[in-house]
Amino acid sequence: MSTHQPGTLAVHAGHEPDAATGAVAPPIHLATTFRHGPAGERVAGYEYQREGNPTNDRLREALKALEGGEEAMTFASGMAAMSTLLESLPTGARVLFPDDCYTGLRMLFAEFLPERGIVPIEVDMADLDAVRAACAQPLAMLWIETPSNPLLKVCDIAALAALGHAAGAVVVADNTFATPLLQRPLALGADIVMHSTTKYFGGHSDVLGGALVFARNDALAQRVAHRLHVTGCVMAPFSAWLTLRGCRSLGARMAMHCANARAVATFLSTHPRVARVNWPGLPSHPGHAIAARQMRDFGAMLSIQLHGGRDAALAVAGRLRVFTNATSLGGCESLVEHRASVEGAHPRSPQDLLRISVGLEDAGDLVADLAQALG
Ligand SMILES: *Cc1c(COP(=O)(O)O)cnc(C)c1O
After folding, report:
1. In testing the pocket of ligand 1, which one of 84, 97, 102, 342 has its CB within 8 Å of the most ligand atoms?
2. Measured distance CA(15)–CA(26) in Å, rounded
3. Which of 7, 25, 165, 350 is the most exposed place for a label (fewest CB within 10 A)?
4. Does residue 237 contact residue 55 with C-beta atoms inside 8 Å?
C-alpha cells in the first residue's frame, strides 16, 4: 500500500474491512474501556479510550501512510497537537517560528510558552540568510508553515530542514494548508508534520481535530504520545470516524479545490480593484518556483489586498453572496474573512487584506460572485 500514490492511500489506508463482520465502512468504537485479563492482560491491545481505540488507530494508519511517517497521534484539535508538541520541549529551548503564521501559534509563543522557559524567535522563513543567522546558536525546534497564513508565503522545506538539522533542531512543518495530497514535508527532510484535521481532512466544516506524524518512532515521538495519553487532549472516536470519512474523498476534493482556486486567482490577478493576489500558483508570486518544486499543486487558500484599504476590503466582503464571511478553511463552501477584524487588539494582517478559502462550488459562480462584489 505504501508504494501507491497519495490519492489511492487517501481512499484505502486504514480502511480494511472490519475483521468481525466484513463491513466495508469502519465501525465507530465508542467504548471507553476494554476487557482485560485478571492481571491486566490486554485482550486486543486496548485498555482505556484515552490511551487508544480502534477508530483512532485507523486514522493514525491513514495519516502515517499519507505523510510517509512511522508514528502518528491524533488530538482534540490542531492547537492541542501543536501545544502538546511544544510543551514537550525542555526549559530554555530556542524555537524558530515564521513571521507569517497561524494566529494560534503566535498566541502560544506570546502568552504561554515563555512561562515555561521556551524562547520563541520570529524569522522570515523565506529569507534563508536570516534563518542561517538565527541558527548560529543551538536550536531546539524550527517551525515551518508553507504556504503560510494569511500571506501565503512559501518557504523551501528541504533547505530549512538542512539548516535546522545543522543547528541540532527538530524540524516541524504545519501541513494544514497543503495536505499530503499536495506536499509531503517528511520526504523533504522534516521530522514531524502537524495538521489541523479540522480543515481539509475533515473537509465539511463539522469536526475539530489535530494530528502529528513523526518520520521516526523515536524518543521524542514516544514522549509526545505519553504526554497526550496522560494530559488527555485526545480526539474522540466519532471525530476520528468523521475525519476518516473526509480522508476518503481528500484526493478528489483537493483536485477540485485547486482547480477552482486557479480560476479565482486568475480572475482576481487582472482586476483593477485588486492591488495584489497572494497565491503561490501565480508565476508572479515570489515563492512560485519553490512551490512548483515541492508541491503537486498550489492549494486553494489565497488572500487578496485591495486598492482602498480597510473600507474597500470590508465593502467587498459584505457584498459577497456565494462566499460566506466566516473563519476557518478547507470545507466544501467558500469562505472569506477580513483577518485584521478578528485578530484582536493588535492585528498582524494588513487592513486591506481578505483571506479566501476556495470551496467546491462551480468555478464560474465563484468568479461571478467576486465580479459583482468588486463592482
Ligand atoms: C486551524 C489551524 C490550526 C489550528 O487548528 P484547530 O483545529 O483550529 O485547533 C493550526 N494551523 C493552521 C495552519 C490552521 O489553519
Report:
1. 102
2. 7
3. 25
4. yes
113 DSSP 8-state letter: G
Does pTM top 0.90 for this prediction?
Answer: yes
Q: What percent of the chain has pLDDT over 70?
A: 99
Report residues whose beta carbon is within 6 angstroms of any ligand 1 atom.
77-79, 102, 104, 149, 174, 176-177, 196, 198-199, 208, 210
Q: Which domains does the chain have, with CATH numbers?
A: 6-248 (3.40.640.10), 250-374 (3.90.1150.10)
Q: Is the dihedral of CA 77, 78, 79, 81 positive or negative?
A: positive
Among the atoms of ligand 1, which is closest to the Cα of residue 210? 7
Please confirm, yes or no, whether 102 is among the known catalytic residues: yes
Over residues 250-269, the mean pLDDT reads 98
Give dist(CA 364, CA 78) in Å, integer: 33
Residue 99 among the catalytic residues: no
What residue spans of the chain are helical by DSSP H? Answer: 6-12, 54-67, 78-86, 103-107, 128-134, 157-166, 219-231, 237-248, 250-269, 288-294, 309-319, 339-342, 363-374
Q: Across residues 144-168, what is the average pLDDT?
A: 98
Instruction: With beta carbons less than 8 A apart as the criterion, state whether 108 and 140 touch.
Output: no
Tens-place pLDDT, residues 300-353: 999 999 999 999 999 999 999 999 999 999 999 999 999 999 998 899 999 999
Exactly one of 156, 174, 191, 352 is catalytic; name it. 174
- Tell me if residue 64 is catalytic: no
Range scoring the smallest mean pLDDT among 43-47, 252-256, 267-271:
43-47
106 C-beta neighbours (distance < 10 Å), count:
18
What is the Cβ-side half-sphere exposure of residue 41, based on CA atoms within 13 angstroms?
Answer: 4
Under a CB-based contact definition with an 8 Å cutoff, are residues 249 and 203 in contact? yes
Q: How far apart are CA 232 and CA 144, in angstroms?
A: 26
Q: Is 359 helix (H, G, I), strand (E, B) or coil?
A: coil
Q: Distance between CA 28 and CA 260 in Å, rounded?
A: 34
CB 210 within 8 A of CB 75: yes
Residue range 235-262: average pLDDT?
98
